[in-house]
Amino acid sequence: MSCHGRVKTVLETEIVEVMSKREKILITTEIHPDGLRHLKDAGYECVVVPESDPAQTHAAAPEVVGIVANASFKFDEAFFSRAAQLRVLGRKGVGYDNVDIEAARRRRIRVVNTPLSVIEPVAEQAILFFLALARRLIPGDGAVRAGRWREPGNLPGAELKGKVLALIGLGNTARRVAEIAVRGFTMSCVYFDKVARPEAEAALGLQRLGFDEALAAGDFVSVHVNLSSETRGFIGAQQFACMKKGAFFVNLARGPVVDERALLEALRSGHLGGAGLDVFEVEPPGASNPLLRLPNVVLSPHIGGASTESLRGGSMVTLDIVRILRGEEPVHGVA
């Protein structure tokens, strides 16, 4: 073998060794190519495991320094105890109730998210629910497909114009809902939030009310709060009783924020005119869930925050992951 050949072999060996020592990022969710490219360009090896495969996710834990995750898999003490090298967990989207924040803090694992990426798709989904419910889109669609034409029960209901929208929680997404409702449909808008939002009030003519007062005022009631111990079961029988007869209820927050049994009773009794649900207490909902069989309910499979644009925006949580791994501060830190 020539000297040149031996040098080449040594260099190739060194390259292989360097490549094998690259730090690993675990990806358990769909990721846009731009987000993946950012990790690879920064020198990290990407380990892709479907979120639906918890055994493989746990098996990969000891070798990774970072994670890109979605909302389903539970990152708890048991998981973190296996992830000795883990330094940062990035959640696509705004919610992080599937992450044990205190356990992460104890182990000095940073948590980041992408709160701005889901504002537009969730807001548009809320408006979609309002329209589908008020205009009875789903029953009308079913009637046409079944050969029934303009039956009284399938005629569209009220317009959005001039109706009152009650927002429970007024974060960034709820404010965008208010903006579309007020400026696009000339609805009035009230809100309940622990924190006053004077800027939004001035810009959009919003009125801040107490919890029960806001519920009672709305022709449409839309929930936009994070899931926590405080908000679990936040909307129950007492709250539904506060709402106007015939009001429409929409939940794009988290399923456990709402007591589904109480919601079912309010719908069956006719007290509520209908509901739009993107989230459920148990996901996916079982085939026996009676909400699936009610004609005045519009459903979607927890995709309110999903769009072509938000896939890329959420995937760019990789920017903050790389920042933290380089010893820099993130833009959207949770913990």
Please name the defining characteristics of this protein.
seven-stranded parallel β-sheet; Rossmann fold; five-stranded parallel β-sheet; 335 residues; 14 helices; disordered N terminus; alpha/beta; 2 domains
Largest sheet: 7 strands, parallel
Going across the major beta sheet, what is the strand order? Answer: 8-7-6-9-10-11-12
Based on secondary structure, the structural category is alpha/beta
**What is the CATH first-level class name of the largest domain?**
Alpha Beta
Radius of gyration: 24 Å
> Number of helix segments?
14
Query: How does the overall form come out from the CA principal axes?
Result: elongated
Mean of residue pLDDT?
92
Helical amount: 25-40%
- Number of E-state strands: 12
Kindly identify the CATH topology of the largest domain.
Rossmann fold
Share of residues in strands: 15-25%
> What is the level-2 CATH architecture name of the largest domain?
3-Layer(aba) Sandwich
Low-confidence runs (pLDDT<50, min 5 residues)? 1-20
The CATH superfamily of the largest domain appears as: NAD(P)-binding Rossmann-like Domain
Fold and architecture overview:
- This protein is α/β, with parallel strands linked by helices.
- It has two domains: 132 residues, Rossmann fold (3-Layer(aba) Sandwich), CATH 3.40.50.720; 181 residues, NAD(P)-binding Rossmann-like Domain (Rossmann fold).
- Helix content is 39%, strand content 16%.
- It has 14 helices and twelve strands.
- The longest helix is centred in the N-terminal third of the chain and has 18 residues.
